[in-house]
Amino acid sequence: MAAPLPTFVAQHRADWDALEALLARQRDGSLTLPELRKLDSLYRRAASDLAHAQTFYPGTDAHRFLNQLCARAYGAIYQPPRERWAQVRAFFRRDFPRTLRRELRYVGASGALFILGLLLGALVVLWEPRGAELLVPSGVRQYVAQGRMWTDDILSVAPPDTVSSGIATNNLTVTILTFALGLFYGLGTMFVLVNNGVQIGAITALCAREGMAGRLLDFIAAHGPVELSIIVIAGGAGLMVGQALVDPGELPRGQALALRGREAVKLVLGCAPFLACIGVVEGYVSPGDLFPTWAKTALGLGLGGLFWAYLLRAGRADAEATEAPAVNAS
């Protein structure tokens, strides 16, 4: 014989409330693996309770509540797989540029560190020419001493597709390293940014001192604006990770790192396809004399302008459309 309805509800209400709480967290995407297993277990219990209610308490509030609760749980557990390409499109259309705009202060700090390195490297070599022996790689110094660019022989050593693939791999390695070293409380990222800036600044000053600034510009003009922008963005991601470790706020350090790390990873992943594309430019367009300097410069400025226009504008229309009803309602 079935127990009275109040007794039945009192016996099982705790499980139903727990299932409701897990469903709310599941919508936020914050469930852990043990909680997912618990969600499945509670759903099976609720389904059994629903069958019991349909038999002994049909048409009651408890029956209707369990029917709705099990429907929500079923939809959460057995939801159809999401369209991968739609997620990718949404990420690059909205999530990546919006994340960058939210974290623009870190990207700005990264850019400032890089520029500081550029100025230091250039000033050292311009002030004391022997500084190049410390800051410029020996292979580069040997080419400059001969009045040649170290990039002149790139296409004679390997075909453009091989060069492009190697450059893209190297750029991705530098980007990931710049980001990952943020785990050393941001100090590793800061060192990479300043060190890269110092080396590039020193090389630029050495070329200028030897009358080769034009040839250096000829090589870096096409790919430099986008490539350096991506390094700075990766540096911003690394600084985000470092800041979460140094100042986690009211959250435990591990939780703060997880939250900020997810946002930082979005910046690095978002840059990956642009790195591949700019690697093609660096492999096919930048070396050699096939394209004149003015064409390379126009291409580099154009790609850099489009890249930052995308980052600063993409997704804004969707955000404004979402906010408009709330503004009108008020």
UniProtKB/TrEMBL annotation:
> Where are the membrane-spanning stretches?
104-127, 172-193, 228-246, 291-312
Transmembrane as UniProt keyword? yes
Q: Per its UniProt record, what InterPro entries does this chain match?
A: SpoIIM-like
Alphabetized, the UniProt keywords read: Membrane, Transmembrane, Transmembrane helix
Q: Has the keyword RNA-binding been applied to this entry? A: no
Extract the PANTHER family matched here: SLR1478 PROTEIN
What name does the UniProt record give this protein?
Answer: Stage II sporulation protein M
